[in-house]
Hints:
The protein has 197 residues and is an alpha+beta fold. The chain has a domain at 67-196: Glutaredoxin. It has 6 helices and 7 strands. The chain has helices spanning 2-10, 12-26, 28-39, 96-112, 129-139, 186-196, and strands at 67-70, 75-77, 85-91, 118-124, 146-148, 163-167, 173-178. Strand 1 and strand 2 (75-77) form a beta hairpin. Helix 2 packs across helix 3 and helix 3 crosses helix 4 (96-112). The radius of gyration is 20 Å and the shape is elongated. Residues 53-59 have low confidence and may be disordered.
Amino acid sequence: MEKLKVWLMKNWSTAILALLFIILLVNPDAKAWLMRQIASTGILNSRISDAKKETSKDASVSYAGFTLRKEDGTIIDAASLQNKVVFINFWASWCPPCRAEFPSVQKLYEKYKTNPDMVFLTVNMDDNTQLGKSYLKEKEFTVPFIIPAGPIPNALYEGSLPTTVVLDKKGEIRLHHTGIADYSKNSFYEQIDELLK
């Protein structure tokens, strides 16, 4: 015991770093906090791209048959979202990067939720949907709880979490970002405002 005390006195900074590392390994909220700090720098963010000029008949992606289900059971058909800017975020409660970016998704939602030309599809990919609902309730997030009601087109989601997609009013993909990002930056709001015009 005496040797341990001596070692801790000499190596207190190493002991603290080791303890922090262990906490980051086992606590998903601690991982999310660290990732949120990194994301807040903006270095991981992507930008909404310019609209592509249609050069062929295959320039736009078809979302026919892509359906989602709201918490109340209402079915959302993606084809009905034309003429709206659509923010889609695929997430799961067990995913630390999803947890890290969710506060920024919530802020974006709060800013634009009353805009009739903006739709938020926060699609939960948990195998047990109750886990996703519990996470939103625990963190007091008010984003819509949505689950897939059928197959998801690969153009939108290929299995990596989190994945965020922004569709313009023509239904074209203007942002496809895999991984953590911060959607609560003024620069991102300005890009959304441009799409809403």
